[in-house]
Amino acid sequence: MSAAIILHEYAASGNCWKIRATAALAGVAIERREYDIVRGETRTPEFLATVNANGRIPVLQVGDRFLPESNAACVYLGEGTDLIPHDNFDRADMLRWMFWEQYNHEPNVATLRFWTGWIGLDSLTPVQAGQVDAKRAAGDAALALMDEHLARHDWFVGDSVTLADIALYPYTAKAGEGGFELARYPAVRAWLARVEGVAGFVPFA
């Protein structure tokens, strides 16, 4: 990777952490540019015109090209490393967990963390407030599925850390900030400790 690599991010975001963690584990140097999403810094005309017309971060910039979506950026950075399995089935299974994270896990676990810590449950719109119970149930279902899998496997795919683990780590680690009780999921907690013990692990503050 000869082109300069820049991460456009909001550091408190788990989706942004995934990219930082992948870069660290893959030994890829990145430059970081911080935006305050609460102040609308990703909705400015300049950002929309030059970084991401969708107005969201993270975005990985490689030279003059821009790659939105955290898991896509992780795959780009992880190519050629052991973070991506060499076996075709295991690679596809890794992607399956990464897709599942964005569809079943993040919209529930991460959203409740944001609503609780950034907006306040008492300040939600009526539509958001009406979704809280459903998101909590769906988030607990996701954590329970993870716990069942991790009771039988040390990692989500194969016998070492992969991008599947990186994708699922941050919002799981911070699930308590959204009101989820991680004590109910002992296999998940043991897995979190394994991820944190990987050489080169980047803490998610």
What does this molecule look like?
This protein folds into two domains: 5-78, Glutaredoxin (3-Layer(aba) Sandwich); 88-196, Glutathione S-transferase Yfyf (Class Pi), Chain A, domain 2. The chain has helices at residues 14-26, 45-50, 70-78, 88-119, 126-129, 132-150, 163-173, 186-196, and strands at residues 5-9, 31-34, 59-62, 65-68. The chain is of the alpha+beta class and 205 residues long. The protein has eight helices and four strands. The longest helix is centred in the middle third of the chain and has 32 residues, at 88-119. It starts with a strand and ends in a 9-residue tail after the last helix. The model has no long low-confidence stretch (mean pLDDT 97). It has a four-stranded mixed β-sheet, covered by helices on one side. Strand 1, helix 1 and strand 2 form a beta-alpha-beta unit. The chain is globular and about 45 Å long. Helix content is 51%, strand content 8%. Helix 4 (88-119) runs antiparallel to helix 6. This is Glutathione S-transferase family protein.
Reported for the largest beta sheet, the result is: 4 strands, mixed
Total of helices: 8
Radius of gyration: 17 Å
Instruction: Note the gap between the termini.
Output: 28 Å
Q: List SSEs in N-to-C order.
A: EHEHEEHHHHHH
Major sheet strand order: 2-1-3-4
* CATH first level of the largest domain: Mainly Alpha
Estimated share of beta-strand residues:
5-15%
Q: Unreliable runs, pLDDT <50, ≥5 residues? A: none
CATH fold title of the largest domain: Glutathione S-transferase Yfyf (Class Pi), Chain A, domain 2
Assign a percent range to the helix content. Answer: 40-55%
Structural class per helix/strand content?
Answer: alpha+beta
Family: Belongs to the GST superfamily.
InterPro entries: Glutathione-S-Trfase_C-like, Glutathione-S-Trfase_C_sf, Glutathione_S-Trfase, Glutathione_S-Trfase_N, GST_C, Thioredoxin-like_sf
Protein name: Glutathione S-transferase family protein
